[in-house]
Amino acid sequence: MNDKTFFGFVSPSVIIMVLLMVIPLMTAVFLGFHFVTYSNLESPQYVGLQNYTEMLTDPDFWASFNFTFIYIVTVVPASLVLGFGIAMLLDQVTAFRGFFIAAALIPHIITPVVGSLMFRTMFDRSGLYWYLLRALFDYDFTMTTTTVRMLIIGQGIWQTTPFAMITLFAGLQTLPKQLMEAATVDGANAFQKLWHIILPHLRSLFLFISLMGVMDAYRVLDQVLVITKQNPLFRADTVMYYNYKVAVMFSRLGKANAMSILTVFGIFIVLIPFLRITYKQQMESR
Amino acid sequence: MEKVKNPIGRVLIYLALILLVVYSVMPFVWSLLTSIKYPIEANNPKPKLFGFTPTMMNYEELWLYMEGSAFVPYAIAMLVLMIVIVVFAVLSVRLQWLSKPVTNMIAVGLFLVLLFVLPQVAQMSKFYDYFLNSLVVTVGTLVVSISIGCVGGYALARYSKIWGVIILIAALGFRALPRMAFSLPYYFIAQMTHLYDTRILLIIVMVAINQPFTIWMLRSFFMDIPKEIEEAAMIDGAGRLESFFKVIIPIAWPGIITTSLFTLLLAYNEFLMPKILTQANWTLPVAIASYTSGEDAAYRAIAAAASVSITIPIIIVIIFFQKYLVKGLAFGAVKG
To answer: For the domain A66-251, what is the CATH code?
Structure first.
């Protein structure tokens, strides 16, 4: 394909990405240096680095990073382990496999706001899990900072496991049969096969799922908004939810934009190695 | 992998999978049950799985601005008209009055007209308006995003110079950036251009944020189609554009459906953008979030009815398009 046709074909996509992604990012940088609220949108007031210093000295900002970190290091490994276990189980069955997969996918593709609401109502007064906890363990579930955080993490695991499951299940289907047969002939037991053949075969997939998981976990917002009922007493803000709060509830648009720019730098720490790997792959395969 | 042969082992595997199904669907089933309970039953501290008197009251209150019984004739009329449309579509394809794509487009168009005429004749609630907003935004995003994504993705699949790689990497970077970084500038720009609180703004914005994903996925589907196919068509005298529409698109159709499904879900599920960019013209996720903040127990049954109403289209998608969904989700696994 020559240059002229190529640029003709990609121009709609590229123009919309430049207009609606590059320009907004530049606007975010611009607004980050200004004092803006909803009442002075037309006339932002230049304040230099003040928004950034305010943000970096804000304990709630660091607390939100702290909880996001806890969220990532619990949800991502848990969804990997659970997803792998379920993928192995699915690999064992042929009857009703489609049904099991369809049911397991529901938490992943349901609207996140709705999924979080459904998940939370199970623990509300007169919800099923609330009732079971009380009837079986005599434990009265009430919302506190700790339990709200646990609910958010639990919902995260419920929602992200199906993605790990389906990806790893697809990976298991490409496992070389001869290798497994050779291992059986050599007398390897199930654990040895798992450790020496299956896990190495799936290694790149584990990496891929973790990367996606980290990026998605970094963006968690709707779930926190629904599960905390927007109640500021529960100190369970994630980075994006705090960013949202600064913009929507505190009306500090300039400060919120400064925070957005800081979070963009944050994600680039994870993103740059990933982009480099992809760049190399693409350069080799073209 | 070789199968477990031990019968006890097999029973345990099936038990574990049934447990998985319960764990995955229970929140939905519970909301479904709550949504057909009277408020007093929905707030019962000893909740019942069965043995309560079911009611459609919550759905009536959610969707209608009139008595449920008064809505019955409208519901019957809608049903009859929909059956007529389907019969017309099937007949016109069978009798070859019209080609299949044209018939499908006419049928979908008539369905949409029906849905938009309904609130003109019957008193529907605000929730119905939000449903229509979601419908317009989702369909609009889908059509625009896939149309420009197809040409873009195809070009990226067939072009080997450095510019292609640069565009792909930039798109991947954009995809990973937090939505908040875009949404606040969008709010600012929307206020300046007076597009705030319009459906068209939501469509433009959703197309933009979904575009990186769309071109990546479509590109990989186009790469699976051998170059020789369109080269043969071009030798026969077709231009690049003609061979693309007449030869490539029909072959790439399954890939396009898969990508469309994901675009559809992304647009339908999106919360942050419509939340920030609308004031009255909410979409469904924004509307339901407004039911969630209060402690008021009276809302519980209604919120459950809203949850179920929003989820039903997604369940339909799973039932009819499971094959494509699984293919799309496992797409990372196959491509490495």
So the answer is: 1.10.3720.10
